[in-house]
Amino acid sequence: MALCDVSLCVSEGEFVAIVGPSGGGKSTLLSILGCLDTPDQGRYFVFDEEVNWKSSKQLSRLRGGVLATIFQGFELVPHWTVSENVELGLRMRSIPKRKRMEIVIAMLRKVGMLHNIHKYPNELSGGEQQRVAIARALCTAPKVLLADEPTGNLDPENAKEVLGIFRSLHEQGTTIVMVTHDMEIAGQAQRVLRIQGGRLDNSIVTGGSHDHA
Question: I need a surface site. Which of 74, 113, 126, 147 has the fewest CB within 10 A?
């Protein structure tokens, strides 16, 4: 879906939800924010640094450090254990194996999945797989967490647990931008925006008493 004249500013430490119908441009916008896609026009800044013209290697470093994306389909490697999946983002860095495992264990403990460290994705429920995906994203200590329908494949109880993790991360200072079609889920955010037909409506603001840019 093409985006039309989209202008969006997210403040550091903010929790923003973007809602809208299927095909409205939500995932396209999130892919651009996560540097997975490049816009044909316009400018995109991350912490005051323009990223439009960065090389593939520079964008990869940005995705592996400042930004992290969580996908609706979990995107776990089926023949890797939980530990190996979570470790993925750390393998591209010059981090000793022992240190990598310390980080993996800490992140799995953070999302309540340490007891499943040696299991494979097909041995986990949807909610457990999503928590593993969150742990993988957190391993690189991102400043901005992008989530594409993170509860879309989950039952209400697991969705509640995942949102609880998001709230905790937000309280710790992580900036979160979450795409969802569910207004009840979106209501957990400080600010809710609607995108439809590729156009973003910045006038929809809900929740919280925080100041927004």
Answer: 126
DSSP state of 190: S
Residues 123-147 pLDDT 10s: 999 999 999 999 999 998 899 999 9
Q: What domains sit in the chain, N to C, each tagged with a CATH number?
A: 15-201 (3.40.50.300)
Which pTM does this prediction carry? 0.85
Q: 135 near 111, Cβ under 8 Å?
A: yes
What would the two tokens of residue 162 be? 């995942």
Question: Using an 8 Å Cβ cutoff, are 111 and 134 in contact?
Answer: yes
DSSP H helices in the chain:
26-33, 56-63, 82-91, 97-110, 126-138, 156-171, 183-186
Q: How many CB atoms lie within 10 A of CB 64?
A: 18
Q: How far is CA 58 from CA 51, 123, 181, in A?
A: 9, 36, 32
